[in-house]
Amino acid sequence: MLEAIDITKTYETRGVETKALRGVSLAVADGEFTALAGPSGSGKTTLLNLFGALDTPTAGKILLDGQDLGELDATALADLRLAKLGFVFQAYNLIPVLSARENVEFVMELQGVPVADRHRRAHAVLDQVGLADMAEKRPLEMSGGQQQRVAVARAIVSEPRIVLADEPTANLDSKTAAQLLGIMQRMNREQGVTFLFSTHDPMVIDLARRVVRLHDGEIASDERRE
Question: The whole model's pTM is what?
Answer without folding.
Answer: 0.87
